[in-house]
Amino acid sequence: MELFVPFTLATWLIALNHEPANDRVVLLPSADGRAGAVQLSTAKGELLLAQPFAAAEASADGNLTGSTADGPSVQARYGDTLAALPARPVSFTVYYLSGSAEALTAESAGQLDALKAELLRRPVPEIVVVGHTDRVGSQADNDVLSLARAGMVRQRLLDSGVKAQSMEIAGRGERELAVDTADEVAESRNRRVEIIVR
Amino acid sequence: MNIKVIAVAVLLALPAQAEEAAGMIKTAQGKVEVVRGGQRLPAGPGFAVMQADKVQTGAASSVGITLRDNTLLSAGANSSLSLDQYAFNPTTHQGRIDASLKRGTLSVISGKIAKTSPDAVHFRTTAVTLGVRGTEFILEAHGEDD
């Protein structure tokens, strides 16, 4: 009996060692407050994680077990991984006068200093300049106009000595309205260019 | 509207979309390598990550990557992450992400693609596939590296 206990413990430890560890998933609370979700599927089943800190383990043969994590346990196990996340992108917005790709409103000019400060905070900053229009005109025309606005802002940034690892442009046309309107409604808050720093 | 300016802007935008990176390494600690076409490349901040790249970290190492659609990824020590498929249209925000974590740990803050095309973002381990709908999460894998 004295020998039996250490023997079984040793056998159990060896067995544990050979058992592949389960894969794990933890849903984190989103910074923007939106309720996200992750749908898990394995060979044996499905599980939806939709609450902050909802967690699950998946065994190598596909068994899913749901559980709940918390902030301290996530930090203890994954703190180093989370610390390596790149800084979240930040965006600056400038506004346009109606139907124009060139004329910026007066209050948009002052954002350059804030933009330059943000670039200095990041290791290898990239800029993406994204143009938007209101719903006056066709979608195709607005795609062209929004890209042109982005191109003009890009040129202004270059002229102002803004330097980044790269500076791309994109035109979203009327797909991403700041203020929802019916078609063909002129809305100054939708005629804008976002300067995204990441 | 100045048509000439618009035409130039459109032309300038086109070549950039041909052979585009999927993202860029922003943070790196310790040993970080990218396996591309059989080659093992040392990688650090500023390194452009392409579709089909495999990003690997050593002991006490980590890497952080920002993808073109603003998806943020970070992998902890002893990790192996493959960016199997990546496509992003900056006009429509449609695209696709297929990534697999063979081993190690991965944290993800989803970006524009998950917002526009929620059924087009998948992260996998050997045991489980995650369909991602606009969220932040952690994944830990214990599979064999190939």
TrEMBL record, chain A:
Protein known as: OmpA family protein
InterPro entries: Bact_OuterMem_StrucFunc, OMP_bac, OmpA-like, OmpA-like_sf
Keyword Protein biosynthesis: no
UniProt signal peptide: none
Superkingdom per UniProt: Bacteria
One Pfam family it belongs to: OmpA
Localization per record: Cell outer membrane
Keywords, sorted A to Z: Membrane
Principal subcellular localization: membrane
Domain called OmpA-like: residue spans: 83-198
Record CDD domains: OmpA_C-like (cd07185)
From TrEMBL, chain B:
Keywords: Signal
Keyword Signal: yes
Source species, domain of life: Bacteria
The keyword Signal appears for this protein: yes
Pfam families on file: FecR
Secretion signal, residue range per the UniProt entry: 1-18
Domain FecR protein: 53-143
This protein's name: FecR domain-containing protein
Protein's organism: Chitinimonas viridis
